[in-house]
Amino acid sequence: MGLFDRFKKKPVPEPKAKKKRAKEIATENKEPYVDIVSVELDPENIGQGSFEIDWNDYFVAKLVRSGYKGKDDEQIVDQWFQDVCRHVVLETYEQYDANNPRPVNTVQKKDIGGGRTEVS
């Protein structure tokens, strides 16, 4: 080893490639992307809270093609998210209703096919 060899420039390692996020991959592939980033709950009222949602332009375009309207992307995505929540509530109610039969004095409807309904 020569006198000045220890001062030679050492090779600098290549920086590691930044791992792409799912949103970046979907956007590059021109695919819709949506994700719930976080959920915040009110510590005083656990039934209250908010969601942080992330999306790309392709997701908004898909919503618009599906009939959602609004003055901006946030309004369009909010309408979609409210629909999702509404469907969760309705499904939960239907499951509850199926497991808790109604009293005899209520009207029962049953789809019997062919566009016909049985009412009892």
Secondary-structure element series: HEEHHEE
Strand order of the largest sheet: 1-2
What is the radius of gyration? Answer: 28 Å
Number of helices: 3
Biggest beta-sheet profile: 2 strands, antiparallel
- Average the pLDDT over all residues and give the rounded result: 85
Tell me the number of strands. 4
- What is the helical fraction, as a range of percent? 25-40%
Structural class: alpha+beta
Distance between the termini: 100 Å
Percent range for β-strand residues: 15-25%
Q: Write down the overall geometry.
A: elongated
Low-confidence stretches: none
Provide an overview of this structure.
There is one protein chain. The chain is α+β, with helices and mostly antiparallel strands and 120 residues long. It has a domain at 20-99. Helix content is 36%, strand content 24%. The chain has 3 helices and 4 strands; from the N terminus they run αββααββ. It has helices spanning 22-28, 57-65, 73-99, and strands at 34-42, 45-55, 109-113, 116-119. The protein has a two-stranded antiparallel sheet. A two-stranded antiparallel sheet has the order 3-4. Strand 1 and strand 2 (45-55) form a beta hairpin. Helix 2 (57-65) crosses helix 3 (73-99). The longest helix has 27 residues, at 73-99. The radius of gyration is 28 Å and the shape is elongated.
